[in-house]
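Thread: succinic acid complex, take 2
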Amino acid sequence: MITTPVTGVFGAEVHGLDLTDLDDAALTELRATVCANEVVVVRGQRLSAAEQSAFSRRLGPSGEVPFVATMSEFPDVIRVVKEADEGKAFNFGGAWHSDFSFQSSPPSFTILAAVDVPPWGGDTVFASMTAAWAALDAGMQNTLRELVAVHTARDAYSRRMQPIHSGMRGMTIVCDDSADGEQRHPLVCRHPETDREVLFYNRAYVRDIDAMDRSEAVALMEFLHAHTTEARFTYRHRWQSGDVVIWDNRSTQHLALNDYAGFRRELHRTTVAGTAPIAAR
Ligand code: SIN
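Output below.
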């Protein structure tokens, strides 16, 4: 498999692949490439929803998709759409997050395929949580290894958030009380496929630190957000028609930029079921 790094830290473009026609050996190699590089770009694909669903299922069964309506014919495919006239309305994925990290077993991988992309703007920014972790000093690492993060969808999908989502015409998001639930995951996890340590934090869904005084927890979460989203740990993907980006949710977080008012943007997303995060220590 021929790969080119997309930054000096993480991310790679993989060349010469047809995602609709991979033999088992190529699929195994691609999976290992995604785990090692955390974000992989494959250009020139133009997958139908059926082809994307089939490819995604080869990486593993579909993850459960809460709150967001999926395609009726393909219950694992979300159409991520913002219409040209929706202006600066809220955009899906527009806050730093790792997909559905509030689940007991969050997704392992996400596949996002460009269908209709603006001529400029609408980039997706990724942060390597492996690189952000590695840059911390040993004292901070030892402290963080002992902590448990409280993940919840409460500030994204609780009933009070419905008006924000209802502003989007192209997507149906139904908030409900399940968003108020909490899942506790180790703040520092061991990646189940690479065995590397990663900081499993994102500001959208990590809303508290277990057993920590609230003001201390807020200060720590602010630090973690500022640190992990520093430019030196990021890759900014500028979409071209036909791009497919596959990322590892266990070792990255991401953000969809909302700077393309006047242009339509449509991408199709599938997630692959993961396993319960395991503590690094
Ligand atoms: C998402 O957060 O899954 C969507 C990202 C994007 O639209 O760029």
